[in-house]
Design a protein that fits this description.
Helices cover 78% and strands 0% of the residues. The chain has 410 residues and is an all-alpha fold. Helix 15 packs antiparallel against helix 18. The radius of gyration is 21 Å and the shape is globular.
Length: 410
């Protein structure tokens, strides 16, 4: 596989983007300031609904007027969001921060993948999509691994979750500089339109975008990816209280406060998780080749993911935290094996010039289902406990493994 200058730029983007120091501690931060699981779920739902509302126009903007510009706008919005989280402590201000974060997600989602796929098309490297995207995604997961350790150190030495937000600004400013150096041709052919033809170009782009919904195969591929991702993303924040409970149950640093004590174990657990997911992403192509075809690998990982989510709920309910942590680790690995496979499979169903819009459809459907499930998950966790909530989510996910089976590209 060709590892030229752009490969390392793409990898650097992912590494810096995933230095979100707040991620392993987000739920714990919200719990520390007094929010219930329902309120936390509501914040996630607000973020997801806002992303959903902005998804289509931002996807069209990226295809019609420039993917690089779209990415830069995303990162500026992220940075402002981090600043709001750091300086304010009210639910209302967290709603604003989540909206700003959603604005960033809407501009970013699907767009960077489209930049990579455009690069592969220009350089006639489309036959290695799974391998290439898997390797660049591996850099993202490696960033998450190091992020966990840095975040744990910040919490350990400060005893406060708040500093991890302002610290996240630094890598995002560096990524802004990296994105600004991407070549113009990655914006795609739609960037070259004349000013007088902008309205017409939007109509053409929208027509192609809506055409994605008329293809049954394309929509099934998108739904398969979106539903797995949404169940995983709604469930994964609940690993944080599970790890904290486990950390506080073992005799380490007993003279320190809860945040400091748990930060060490949480940092190590998330470092191991992201280190393994980095390896999984890098080897997604090899993994998929072990199966008869790509759809078989996609379908099997969906089914296994549902089963493991159910088992994680059962183990959490019966206070077997170590087993639950292991099961979540496998879920993280599955998500990162699936992602390069899903992107490759979906890209075979969508015209290249609609790639950012097409991948935005997938992100949009993911955020719709997440926005619905997140408050429900929060209510279930408040009323029945985290373990039962995870079990119910897994039980709902299970039948979709059969309903959303994908077939080979004809």
């Amino acid at each position: 596989m060709k590892k030229d200058k752009m490969f390392y730029k793409f990898s650097l983007y992912g590494f810096l983007k995933n230095l979100r120091f707040f991620e392993p501690f987000m739920v714990l931060f919200f719990r520390e300031v007094g929010l219930s699981f329902f309120e936390i779920g509501s914040l996630f739902a607000i973020r997801d609904l806002s992303t959903n509302l902005l998804e289509i126009p931002t996807g069209i903007y990226a295809d019609a007027f420039g993917r690089r510009r779209s990415m830069i706008m995303a990162f500026v919005s992220y940075i402002i969001s981090f600043v709001v989280f750091y300086f304010f402590s009210s639910f209302v201000m967290y709603v604003l921060a989540m909206f700003l974060f959603a604005f960033g997600d809407a501009f970013r989602s699907g767009t960077h993948k489209a930049l990579i796929l455009e690069y592969l098309k220009i350089n006639r490297m489309e036959d290695i999509k799974v391998e290439y995207y898997g390797h660049t995604r591996a850099a993202s997961q490696l960033g998450s691994a190091f992020s966990s350790l840095i975040a744990a150190a910040l919490v350990f030495y400060s005893g406060n979750y708040r500093y991890i937000f302002i610290a996240s600004v630094i890598p995002y400013v560096l990524d802004l500089i990296n994105l600004a150096t991407y070549p113009k041709e990655l914006d795609g052919e739609l960037l070259k339109i004349q000013k007088g033809a902008m309205l017409n170009q939007i109509k053409v782009t929208l027509k192609g975008f809506l055409g994605i919904f008329t293809s049954r195969d394309a929509m099934k591929a998108i739904l398969n990816s979106a539903f797995f991702s949404s169940f995983f993303k709604v469930s994964k924040p609940y690993l944080q209280p599970i790890v904290k409970t486990f950390a506080l149950s073992i005799p380490i640093f007993v003279v320190m406060n809860g945040a400091k004590r748990s930060s060490v174990i949480i940092g190590l657990v998330y470092f191991i998780i992201y280190f393994l997911t980095s390896y999984a992403s890098r080897n997604a192509s090899k993994f998929s080749k072990r199966f008869r075809d790509l759809p078989m690998a996609i379908n099997l990982t969906f089914l296994v993911g549902a089963i493991f989510l159910i088992l994680s709920g059962i183990s959490t309910h019966y206070d077997v935290q170590l087993l639950s942590i292991f099961l979540f680790l496998v879920l993280y690995v599955l998500q990162n094996l699936r992602r390069p496979m899903n992107v490759s499979f979906i890209s075979d169903k969508i015209p290249h010039k609609m790639m950012a819009s097409g991948l935005s459809v997938e992100s949009q459907l993911t955020t719709i289902s997440m926005a619905i499930m997140a408050p429900i998950m929060g209510i279930l966790a408040d009323l029945l406990g985290v373990g039962t909530a995870l079990l119910i989510m897994g039980a709902i996910m299970f039948p979709f493994a059969f309903v959303l089976k994908v077939k080979n590209v004809s």
